[in-house]
Amino acid sequence: MEGYRAYLDEAVASILQWEGEWGAYEPHPALDVEDGRFREALARYTDRLRGNYPFFHPRYAGQMLKPPHPAAVAGYLAAMLINPNNHALDGGPPTGQMEKEVVAQLGHMFHLPEDTLGHLTTSGTIANLEALWVARELHPGKAVAFSEDAHYTHRRMSQVLGVPVEPISTDGRGHMDLDALAAKLESGRIGTVVFTAGTTGLGTLDPIADGIDLARQYDCRVHIDAAYGGFFSILAWGGSDLLASEAQRDLQAIASADSVVVDPHKHGLQPYGCGCVLFRDPTVGHLYKHDSPYTYFTSDELHLGEISLECSRAGAAAGALWLTLQLLPLEQDRGLGPVLSACLRAARKWSRLLDDSETLRPYNEPELDIVTFYPAAGSRRISELDAASARLFDHAMNDPDDPIFLSLYRVGSGEFIERMPELVADQPHARILRSVLMKPEHEFAVPNLHERLSDLALETEARLNRTT
Ligand SMILES: *Cc1c(COP(=O)(O)O)cnc(C)c1O
Quick check: CB of 264 below 6 Å from ligand 1? Predict the structure, then answer.
């Protein structure tokens, strides 16, 4: 796949050829832009884009960010030139059909039933909104429970929907505490329980398998937010030994959920604008019913616009995912599986280096591919530890010759004290360092990242001691 620009050229050429087949027409001068101006403005634009952090490079080991796969870029570009709207099948029959195919593939990935209903969304946020909306319609007046480590979107979207919430405490390692859930379920107020498969902060999996059993005892609906971790189901069902047995069991348990959200624009190699919601019971589709006088005029089939809260959606997003999955299928031994396996190995490798390090200390044992740590730096108080993390973060990012980009993550002091009882909790939170190792190249880059950060950590503290 050297020089993938050739594929972009081919994609553009094929679409231009197709356009040519419709006959010549006169382009309107109103849209014309003089070449020199186009070139100049484009140069200024791409120059401004240089202000980004290098998300593509292994030295960027911060947030959940990476460029799409070239297949997704070529797929998106080709469809975008046509600009189909997957609001309705008439808005773009081929990408509408492709959307159905990729949604079926994602349903299979979770081992959901054949007739699972679903569609792509613009984001995980909208996908979760739809799942919570369906939950509200089926359990009116009841609360939604989610763990304190769940994505903040659940609290926010519940507010949008006017649904009461029940935050459930965690066990200090980022998992929902099922005893706390059981106590809340006893109240009879909860209608839906949300379990997270791969929390956004620590990448941990809620105890989904046991949690579902518990929720069912109280006749609750179960929604799984697998926006981040959903694709690791491929490895769970493939029996990969890179996942712990509980992780495997919890990911497999997603198969019995009522609804699931997964974000192809996170681990599915897609550009932003690609989430997905899946419903086990296809009859929830009737909740979306509406009357529109101006859409749907040529097909009798189920319209994607009839089962989506959003109206216009990029057909290109479905096309990009379709082409990507043709080349990198949702399988353990080829396609996406080896990509995900490399990310897990990267996290394991770094975790072992942190275990043996005197400079950097591990915070959580990674369950997926997110690694958390903090500088040892001899801190005796939470405030010192917090400041040391922030110093290393700044120093690493601003190094002019060999920068490394991390992210900061805020944890409660109580959770820290559980790990280091000798620490003095002089403030309620501490920032630690967090690396999402979602690029397979991290597998090779981790030893260097670790060594470089250890050096930077020593340098940062030496610098501080000189100035104080
Ligand atoms: C990213 C994420 C979301 C939000 O999805 P967006 O695509 O960013 O809107 C929700 N839940 C989890 C677990 C996530 O990781």
Answer: no
